[in-house]
Amino acid sequence: MDSSLIMFVVVLGAVVLAYVLLRGKNQIPSPEISSKPSRPAPPKAQPAAAAAPSIEPGIPPEVVAVIAASVCAMSGGQYTLRAVRRASRATWARAGAVDVTAPF
Predict the structure, then answer these.
(1) SS3 state of residue 84
(2) What is the DSSP letter of 40?
């Protein structure tokens, strides 16, 4: 594996971990004051288990785990990872051209 890819995955994992940890510390639970005894909430129906994502051969499972964690952290669990595949170089070249030629 290329050392820059390994470094990218490590840094991305650290950023995702820091985001998740810091996001949880900013939430202050509000105390609930009630004179009535609380009843336990009825159990929620379990959602159907998500299917395993379709992964292109040659992509390490660690990379897929980091991508899935990033998607989950950024969406608050609203989205799931369905597929992981490599982008063609033409896609990155087009993105670079759009970025460089975008108006101010």
Answers:
(1) strand
(2) P
CA neighbor of 63 nearest in space, from 2, 5, 3, 4:
5
- Determine the Cα–Cα distance for residues 66 and 62; give it in Å rounded to an integer: 6
Cβ 2 vs Cβ 59: under 8 Å: no
Residue 66: Cβ within 10 Å count: 19
> Widest CA span of the chain, in angstroms?
65
Distance CA 43, CA 39 (A): 12
- For 2, the token pair is 């290329």
What kind and span of H or E run contains 83?
strand 83-84
31-71: pLDDT as tens digits: 665 556 567 777 776 666 667 778 888 888 898 889 888 98
pTM of the model: 0.40
Four-residue CA torsion sign, 61, 67, 68, 73 = positive
